[in-house]
Structures are given as structure tokens and as C-alpha cells.
Amino acid sequence: MTGKIKTGRRGDEETRRKGFRMSILNLNSGAFKSQVANRKSQMQAGFSILELMIAMFILIILLSVALPAYQRTVQHAKETVLKENLWQMRRAIDQYGSDKGKLPQSLDDLVTSKYLHEKPIDPITEKREWNEVMGEDNTSPDGGQGLVNVKSLAEGTDSDGNTYDSDAY
Asked: What's phi and psi for 135, nearest 5 deg?
């Protein structure tokens, strides 16, 4: 046992501590940080083509469900506005006939006499044109012709299967 120092467990423990301290110092060094940053940037460079395809597929499914529902809602809203516009014009025709003792000759008469603020827009055709139905004026003592009804000039059918110019409107 001459010349040799027996370290035992304590010596091994000190060596481990020194090695741990060195590894901590290496962790704080710029070289190690740049290696970690390079690995992170390689891992987070972007989405894979598979991830993008899955996201696009989910979007297509959502749009295929939402778009027809949106279109039905818009069409139903247009039909509701059309019914309301026709009702208001027919009400104005009746009021004009009651007040003046004769039916108006056109929708323009209702506008100039202030029974309507303006000629409404047909929401289906998106124009201010209407089918003005003329008929016998029973309220007038002269018994002439007058505007008895208003209908839409839109072609086609509504969501209930009625044509836009039918009596259902």
C-alpha cells in the first residue's frame, strides 16, 4: 500500500460531481444551444403533406354540409321578403281604393300618392319590375279598369313547389 492512495467511494463520487459540473457547463455553452436549436428547427420546419391533406379533407366535408344549408336559408329569406313585399303592395292597393274611391292605374300611382315609400325590389329577380294585374274597378262609380293585384315576374318555383307568380304569393 505504499504510494497508492485508496480513494474508495468518496473519490468516485467526486469524479462524478466534476463530470456533472462539466456537463452543465457544456449545456450552457453556445455550441450545445445551437445544436438544440437546429434539431428544433428541423422538427418544426412545417406541416407534412399528409397533415395538410387531412386538414383540406376536413374543410371540404364541413363546406359540403354548411353550403347547402346556407343556400336554403338565403332562398327562404328571399321568398319571405317576396311575400311581405306583395302583401304590402296589395294592402296599399286596397287602402288607395278605399280612400280615393277608385283603384290605382299602376304601382307608380301608389308611390306618388305616398301609399308606398318606393316601388319595392323583387328579391328573386332583384329588379323593381312587377306583373301588374289590371281588372274591373268595382269601387269606382265609373266602373273602369284599375290595378287589382301584383305578382312577381320571377320564373321557377319556390321551396314549397309553388310558382312565384301563383296565387300562393
From this structure: -155, 180
